[in-house]
Amino acid sequence: MSQEAIPSLGGYSEAALDQAFAALAHEVEASAQSLTSAEAVEAFRLHWLGRKQGRLKSISDAWLKSAPVEAKKLIGQRFNQLKAQIESRLESATGASSQNALDAEAIDITLPGTHRALGAEHPLIKTMHEMVAVFQRMGYSVGVGPEVETDFYNFESLNFPPGHPARDTQDTLVVANQERKPLRDRLLMRTHTSPVQIRTMEQQPPPVRIVIPGKVHRNDAADATHSPIFHQIEGLCVDIDVTFSDLKGTLDHAMKEFFGSSVKTRFFPSFFPFTEPSADVQISCPFCGGKGCRKCKHSGWIELLGCGMVDPAVFGFVQQKQPAYDPKKISGFAFGMGVDRIAMMKYGISDISLLYSGDARFLEQFA
Ligand code: DAH
User: Fold this and answer.
1) Distance from the CA of 294 to the center of ligand 1, in angstroms?
2) Which helix (H) or strand (E) holds 150?
3) Model's pTM, two decimal places?
4) 135 and 85, same structural domain?
5) What is the CA radius of gyration of the chain?
6) Which of 145, 171, 240, 257 is 20 to 30 A from 230, comparing alpha carbons?
7) What's the mean pLDDT in 257-286?
8) How close is the Cα of 351 to the center of ligand 1, in Å?
């Protein structure tokens, strides 16, 4: 749209004004013919309403300047009408041009949609949740504790005195530059979930029934069955008159719930510093029913967890903060199991590192 000349007024009578404005209205209509793109609409707007160079402004400046006072009002009214006409053209054209833009990027519903894979629980977490749920149904609560632990909670309070040989079985990863602290305050990566037993008892008087799932760390060389990071579920039950029969009944029930009601359990004497007596628990192989297969290495039995009656010395450490844990009045049992091995058995996973590789090709098998 080029800048046209300013039309001249044929007089100030209403008829003359009407004629002049009719010509302008016609000009607006003509220039509003092809407002199909956003650029054309903007050009139309600038041409007519531009604040400095706009045609409306130039014409009204010219016409009003020389008009006699009595005509100014009549001219002003007609300019307002003309402006309203321009604005209404702009409005409908703006709607139309954005509709055109929408049409241009219209969605082709015949194309395949964007495929977003469904997330799924990691087999390890799933196993952990299922096992924890078994104990929740028996009235156990669920707790957590820190992975960076002190020597006191990871060892001393669990009756591993400084220099005790049982510490050597734990292949501990220690945090560097802790030598200036007293031994009990030095930080390490927890080697088991058992320290949360102590933390729980320090926080609340008996009775306690709790399971603690979590990540643990050991300086193990990685191979098909070892990973420096793995997972355990700890259990603790403390009350008046808790006996070894309660421990056996609880674990037998839990294993039947988790692996199936035909599974049997058997207990062997063992040693842990924080339980006395201690036991290792085996279950009859849930895959072959005890006949012998690859999963149970043809023995019919699978070793699954450690357990025992809480050692009175452990209650002694807790009593520094919670005197109610008096071993003359209360007793308890504890257990701990490795989750990774159970998950590997359950899902037929032969290499533990797959659980930590984050490889979607492996993980999506469980979706
Ligand atoms: N903390 C032991 C370990 O990692 C496992 C364990 C054994 C936990 C016996 C217990 C228990 O609570 O009573 O080797």
Assistant:
1) 26
2) strand 148-150
3) 0.71
4) no
5) 42
6) 257
7) 97
8) 23
